[in-house]
Amino acid sequence: MSTAAVVLWQVFYAPGGGSFNVHEGSSNVVETVVRSRFIGREHDLLVLRNAFFHMGNRTTIKELAISRGQITQFLSRPFNMSNTELILCINTHAEARDGGLLFAPGKVTSLDSVLEHVCGDISLAEFRSSTLFIICCGGLIKRACSEVRRASQRFDTVYAFNAPMLDPIMMSCHFITTILDFNIFGREPFFKTLQRTAKAEVLSHTAVFAGKSGKIYRVRMASLRRAPNGEAVRCCGQVAKYMETRNGRIRFRCVEPAHHGRPRSFALPLLLAKEGVRWVLGTGTKCRYIIDIV
Predict the structure, then answer these.
(1) pLDDT by residue (tens digit) across 166-206?
(2) Cβ contact 124:155 at 8 Å
(3) How many CB atoms lie within 10 A of CB 278?
(4) 85-119, pLDDT tens digit by residue?
(5) What whole-number distance in Å separates Cα of residue 24 and Cα of residue 111?
(6) Residue 140 contacts by C-beta under 8 Å, 6 or more apart in sequence?
(7) How many whole angstroms separate alpha carbon 78 and alpha carbon 24?
């Protein structure tokens, strides 16, 4: 178990209006788990929350500056120097067309700009390790994957998702808490913990993208009956019906009555593992999945 101090910094969109805020709810889950791991040594934990309606207004800018000041002060403690983990969660919406992150109603900007605005003059080199969770819909990873890749060269590890309508509370409960417990607090190797997160609750909802040192690892469910190579098998706009598996090939049948084009029954070869590039795992469990580098 890690004995390092931790800075948990959560920046989340708060639209106001009195309705339930899923971004805040997601942040509450993460904070509760982290606080529970520091019972008895609360002095080693700094928890920061910055809710924003407009990230560029004076109030938010001032609050972010105060948070950065608190981090600097926390790091200045003798026992915290070079022995502090940073966990930063950016929890907002992403634009489907270009991957921009929502920083104000009707306004989006790049991940690069958001990180620059939030982190300011904070040096990540002062931390033992730094982890960034980008909790937003899939527009970012689909349209601006290069920005996630750049972030993974700045932070030690970056996580993002590609679901078109991501459930942030589900991701906090089933994904982020696993990363916290096993990788950050448990000091388990990155790739082993990534495999732990590959469970049906997560992968039936979204693929996971994990960036490290400029490499992006993608984790996708690969059910033999629906998506043997990581993508749902479709024909004529419909999900094809699984028929059988034989000699490394999966046979499907089109269910569209007005089928046209290739034969109604067709076979697909299974993608095989390739050392250092693609891993096919979970074959003996209920959740078969593929990890590959994109």
Answers:
(1) 999 999 999 999 999 999 999 999 999 999 999 999 999 99
(2) yes
(3) 15
(4) 999 999 999 999 999 999 999 999 999 999 999 99
(5) 20
(6) 94, 99, 101, 111, 134, 147, 148, 160
(7) 33
